[in-house]
Specification:
Elements lengths: L3 H8 L3 H9 L6 E2 L5 E2 L2 H15 L4 H13 L4 H40 L2
Antiparallel strand pairs: 1-2
Helix pairs in contact: 4-5
């Protein structure tokens, strides 16, 4: 079991973020006898997944929706699958946009280097 500070350090996020995720019911940590938050390996894996979703620009509202569906149980698997498929499509679209922008930048950089004589 890990404390909020340990988890924050392990995952490279703040304790404030962990408390926010709890407030938004994205994660529900365990509590020890004195009421302090405790996180197990399952929590860590879940938080790693949440962090990846945030890194790929999934809105908190959708992450909350996914978390709520997960907490409801296995019967929500089709809905969770749909959320992830939709997000994967958005990530792929974003990657295509970034790839096209990168190609344009490469052409412009090549043109400037040619102009400058580098």
């Amino acid at each position: 079991m890990h404390t909020i500070g340990e988890v924050a350090e392990m995952l490279g996020i703040s304790a404030h973020t962990l408390r926010y995720y709890e407030k938004e019911q994205i994660i529900i940590p365990l509590r020890d006898s004195s009421g302090d938050r405790r996180y197990n390996e399952s929590h860590l894996k879940w938080l790693q997944f949440v962090i990846k979703l945030k890194e790929t620009q999934m809105p908190i509202a959708i992450i909350k929706q996914y978390a709520s569906l997960f907490q409801e149980g296995e019967h929500t698997a089709p809905e969770r699958l749909k959320l992830l498929e939709n997000h994967k499509k958005a990530v792929e679209d974003q990657m295509n946009t970034l790839h096209a922008a990168n190609e344009m930048l490469e052409l412009k950089i090549t043109a400037y280097r040619s102009f400058i004589g580098k």
